[in-house]
Specification:
By secondary structure, the protein is of the alpha/beta class. The protein has nine helices and ten strands. The strands form two sheets. The chain has a six-stranded mixed beta sheet, with helices on both faces. Strands 2-1-4-5 form a four-stranded antiparallel beta sheet. α6 links the parallel β7 and β8. The protein is globular and about 50 Å long. The two termini are 32 Å apart.
Amino acid sequence: MIKTEHLTKRYDSLAAVDDVSFEVRPGEVLGFLGPNGAGKTTTMRMLAGFIAPTAGRASICGHDVTTDPLAAKASLGYLPEGAPAYGEMKVWDFLRFIARLRRLAERERERLDFVIGRLQLEQVLERPIETLSKGFRRRVGLAQAIMHDPPVLILDEPTDGLDPNQKHEVRTLINEMAHEKILIISTHILEEVDAVCTRAIIIARGRIVADNTPKGLLAQAGNPPGGLDAVFRSITA
Protein backbone atom coordinates (compact mmCIF):
# COMPACT_ATOMS: atom_id res chain seq x y z
CA MET A 1 0.00 0.00 0.00
CA ILE A 2 3.03 2.28 0.35
CA LYS A 3 5.83 1.79 -2.12
CA THR A 4 8.91 3.82 -3.04
CA GLU A 5 11.25 2.96 -5.92
CA HIS A 6 14.65 4.64 -6.12
CA LEU A 7 13.17 7.77 -4.53
CA THR A 8 15.63 10.66 -4.73
CA LYS A 9 15.58 14.34 -3.84
CA ARG A 10 18.46 16.62 -4.76
CA TYR A 11 19.07 20.26 -3.98
CA ASP A 12 21.81 21.27 -6.42
CA SER A 13 24.70 18.93 -5.53
CA LEU A 14 23.19 17.83 -2.18
CA ALA A 15 21.31 14.50 -2.16
CA ALA A 16 18.85 14.90 0.71
CA VAL A 17 17.32 11.50 -0.17
CA ASP A 18 19.39 9.13 -2.30
CA ASP A 19 17.88 6.08 -4.05
CA VAL A 20 15.47 5.01 -1.30
CA SER A 21 13.28 1.95 -2.00
CA PHE A 22 10.94 0.19 0.41
CA GLU A 23 7.40 -1.18 0.75
CA VAL A 24 5.02 -1.07 3.71
CA ARG A 25 2.17 -3.56 3.83
CA PRO A 26 -1.17 -3.65 5.68
CA GLY A 27 -0.79 -4.26 9.41
CA GLU A 28 2.76 -2.88 9.55
CA VAL A 29 3.77 0.06 11.72
CA LEU A 30 7.05 1.32 10.30
CA GLY A 31 9.37 3.43 12.40
CA PHE A 32 11.43 5.71 10.17
CA LEU A 33 14.56 6.71 12.08
CA GLY A 34 17.60 8.82 11.45
CA PRO A 35 19.72 11.65 12.86
CA ASN A 36 18.94 15.27 12.07
CA GLY A 37 19.45 15.95 8.36
CA ALA A 38 19.33 12.24 7.43
CA GLY A 39 16.40 12.66 5.02
CA LYS A 40 13.47 11.48 7.18
CA THR A 41 11.23 14.52 6.81
CA THR A 42 12.10 14.96 3.12
CA THR A 43 11.03 11.36 2.47
CA MET A 44 7.77 11.89 4.40
CA ARG A 45 7.05 15.06 2.42
CA MET A 46 7.59 13.30 -0.90
CA LEU A 47 5.26 10.46 0.15
CA ALA A 48 2.63 13.02 1.14
CA GLY A 49 2.96 14.86 -2.17
CA PHE A 50 4.19 17.99 -0.42
CA ILE A 51 7.38 18.11 -2.49
CA ALA A 52 8.19 16.40 -5.80
CA PRO A 53 11.01 13.87 -6.10
CA THR A 54 13.98 14.59 -8.35
CA ALA A 55 13.95 10.95 -9.47
CA GLY A 56 12.20 7.71 -8.66
CA ARG A 57 8.57 7.29 -7.70
CA ALA A 58 6.28 6.72 -4.74
CA SER A 59 2.72 5.40 -4.53
CA ILE A 60 -0.02 5.27 -1.90
CA CYS A 61 -2.58 2.46 -2.31
CA GLY A 62 -1.45 2.07 -5.92
CA HIS A 63 -1.79 5.78 -6.74
CA ASP A 64 1.37 7.53 -7.88
CA VAL A 65 1.90 10.62 -5.70
CA THR A 66 3.14 12.63 -8.69
CA THR A 67 0.87 11.56 -11.55
CA ASP A 68 -2.28 10.78 -9.52
CA PRO A 69 -1.94 13.09 -6.51
CA LEU A 70 -5.61 13.57 -5.60
CA ALA A 71 -6.29 9.84 -5.30
CA ALA A 72 -3.06 9.34 -3.35
CA LYS A 73 -3.90 12.13 -0.90
CA ALA A 74 -7.47 10.87 -0.46
CA SER A 75 -5.98 7.60 0.84
CA LEU A 76 -3.57 9.33 3.20
CA GLY A 77 -3.64 11.03 6.57
CA TYR A 78 -0.55 13.18 7.14
CA LEU A 79 0.74 14.80 10.32
CA PRO A 80 3.60 17.11 9.28
CA GLU A 81 6.50 18.10 11.48
CA GLY A 82 5.35 20.89 13.78
CA ALA A 83 1.62 20.20 13.12
CA PRO A 84 1.02 23.48 11.24
CA ALA A 85 -2.54 24.81 11.22
CA TYR A 86 -4.45 28.09 10.90
CA GLY A 87 -3.51 29.59 14.24
CA GLU A 88 -6.27 32.19 14.31
CA MET A 89 -9.02 29.57 13.87
CA LYS A 90 -10.75 28.00 16.84
CA VAL A 91 -10.18 24.27 17.20
CA TRP A 92 -13.84 23.43 16.45
CA ASP A 93 -13.90 25.63 13.34
CA PHE A 94 -10.63 24.15 12.08
CA LEU A 95 -11.74 20.55 12.51
CA ARG A 96 -15.10 21.23 10.87
CA PHE A 97 -13.23 22.93 8.01
CA ILE A 98 -11.06 19.80 7.60
CA ALA A 99 -14.14 17.53 7.67
CA ARG A 100 -15.72 19.56 4.86
CA LEU A 101 -12.51 19.62 2.82
CA ARG A 102 -12.55 15.83 3.08
CA ARG A 103 -16.19 15.82 1.85
CA LEU A 104 -17.42 13.66 4.69
CA ALA A 105 -21.07 14.74 4.16
CA GLU A 106 -23.36 12.60 6.34
CA ARG A 107 -20.34 11.18 8.24
CA GLU A 108 -19.13 14.63 9.26
CA ARG A 109 -20.65 14.79 12.74
CA GLU A 110 -19.77 11.17 13.50
CA ARG A 111 -16.11 11.67 12.61
CA LEU A 112 -15.90 15.02 14.41
CA ASP A 113 -17.28 13.49 17.59
CA PHE A 114 -14.89 10.53 17.27
CA VAL A 115 -11.65 12.48 16.79
CA ILE A 116 -12.55 15.11 19.39
CA GLY A 117 -13.29 12.44 21.98
CA ARG A 118 -10.39 10.17 21.07
CA LEU A 119 -7.85 12.98 21.32
CA GLN A 120 -9.51 14.64 24.32
CA LEU A 121 -10.01 18.04 22.70
CA GLU A 122 -13.37 18.92 24.31
CA GLN A 123 -11.89 21.51 26.67
CA VAL A 124 -10.16 23.53 23.93
CA LEU A 125 -12.76 23.53 21.13
CA GLU A 126 -13.51 27.24 21.51
CA ARG A 127 -9.89 28.36 21.78
CA PRO A 128 -7.77 29.68 18.88
CA ILE A 129 -5.14 27.13 17.88
CA GLU A 130 -2.30 29.65 18.34
CA THR A 131 -3.14 29.92 22.07
CA LEU A 132 -2.81 26.18 22.70
CA SER A 133 0.11 24.41 24.32
CA LYS A 134 2.46 22.46 22.05
CA GLY A 135 0.86 19.22 23.22
CA PHE A 136 -2.67 20.32 22.35
CA ARG A 137 -1.54 21.65 18.95
CA ARG A 138 -0.04 18.22 18.30
CA ARG A 139 -3.34 16.59 19.18
CA VAL A 140 -5.23 18.92 16.84
CA GLY A 141 -2.77 17.91 14.11
CA LEU A 142 -3.44 14.24 14.79
CA ALA A 143 -7.18 14.89 14.71
CA GLN A 144 -7.04 16.36 11.21
CA ALA A 145 -4.85 13.46 10.02
CA ILE A 146 -7.36 10.79 11.04
CA MET A 147 -10.54 12.80 10.29
CA HIS A 148 -11.42 10.93 7.06
CA ASP A 149 -10.40 7.50 8.42
CA PRO A 150 -7.69 6.94 5.77
CA PRO A 151 -6.11 3.52 5.13
CA VAL A 152 -2.60 5.02 5.35
CA LEU A 153 -1.16 7.35 7.99
CA ILE A 154 2.18 9.14 7.90
CA LEU A 155 2.99 10.73 11.25
CA ASP A 156 6.06 12.93 11.68
CA GLU A 157 6.98 12.99 15.40
CA PRO A 158 3.41 12.23 16.58
CA THR A 159 4.14 12.47 20.33
CA ASP A 160 6.50 15.44 20.23
CA GLY A 161 5.59 17.85 23.03
CA LEU A 162 3.13 15.51 24.77
CA ASP A 163 3.30 14.63 28.45
CA PRO A 164 3.69 10.96 29.49
CA ASN A 165 -0.08 10.37 29.82
CA GLN A 166 -0.75 11.96 26.42
CA LYS A 167 2.03 9.90 24.85
CA HIS A 168 0.43 6.76 26.23
CA GLU A 169 -2.96 7.77 24.78
CA VAL A 170 -1.50 8.44 21.32
CA ARG A 171 0.47 5.19 21.35
CA THR A 172 -2.68 3.32 22.35
CA LEU A 173 -4.50 4.94 19.42
CA ILE A 174 -1.67 3.97 17.05
CA ASN A 175 -1.78 0.36 18.27
CA GLU A 176 -5.55 0.26 17.75
CA MET A 177 -5.31 1.69 14.22
CA ALA A 178 -2.46 -0.65 13.28
CA HIS A 179 -4.86 -3.58 12.91
CA GLU A 180 -6.53 -2.02 9.86
CA LYS A 181 -4.15 0.65 8.55
CA ILE A 182 -0.60 1.14 7.36
CA LEU A 183 1.39 3.56 9.48
CA ILE A 184 4.76 5.22 9.02
CA ILE A 185 6.06 7.05 12.07
CA SER A 186 9.06 9.31 11.71
CA THR A 187 10.57 9.70 15.17
CA HIS A 188 13.74 10.22 17.12
CA ILE A 189 12.23 8.63 20.25
CA LEU A 190 13.56 5.09 20.31
CA GLU A 191 11.22 3.98 23.10
CA GLU A 192 8.37 4.82 20.71
CA VAL A 193 9.76 2.40 18.14
CA ASP A 194 9.91 -0.29 20.79
CA ALA A 195 6.36 0.52 21.96
CA VAL A 196 4.43 0.67 18.68
CA CYS A 197 6.53 -0.30 15.63
CA THR A 198 6.62 -3.73 14.02
CA ARG A 199 9.51 -2.72 11.77
CA ALA A 200 12.21 -0.05 11.70
CA ILE A 201 14.11 1.59 8.85
CA ILE A 202 17.16 3.63 9.73
CA ILE A 203 18.27 6.28 7.24
CA ALA A 204 21.59 8.14 7.32
CA ARG A 205 22.97 10.64 4.81
CA GLY A 206 19.92 10.10 2.61
CA ARG A 207 20.30 6.31 2.30
CA ILE A 208 18.71 3.34 4.06
CA VAL A 209 21.32 1.69 6.28
CA ALA A 210 19.11 -0.81 8.18
CA ASP A 211 15.68 -2.40 7.75
CA ASN A 212 14.42 -4.96 10.28
CA THR A 213 12.10 -5.50 13.21
CA PRO A 214 13.22 -3.77 16.44
CA LYS A 215 14.14 -7.19 17.89
CA GLY A 216 15.93 -8.08 14.66
CA LEU A 217 18.04 -4.94 14.83
CA LEU A 218 19.03 -5.78 18.39
CA ALA A 219 19.89 -9.38 17.46
CA GLN A 220 21.99 -8.28 14.47
CA ALA A 221 24.01 -6.04 16.77
CA GLY A 222 24.46 -8.76 19.39
CA ASN A 223 21.95 -7.29 21.87
CA PRO A 224 24.31 -4.55 23.07
CA PRO A 225 23.95 -2.78 26.43
CA GLY A 226 21.88 0.32 25.76
CA GLY A 227 19.46 -1.49 23.46
CA LEU A 228 18.11 0.29 20.40
CA ASP A 229 19.85 3.52 21.35
CA ALA A 230 23.25 1.81 21.10
CA VAL A 231 22.28 0.15 17.80
CA PHE A 232 21.11 3.47 16.37
CA ARG A 233 24.32 5.27 17.36
CA SER A 234 26.56 2.56 15.91
CA ILE A 235 24.70 2.37 12.59
CA THR A 236 24.48 6.14 12.02
CA ALA A 237 27.95 7.04 13.26
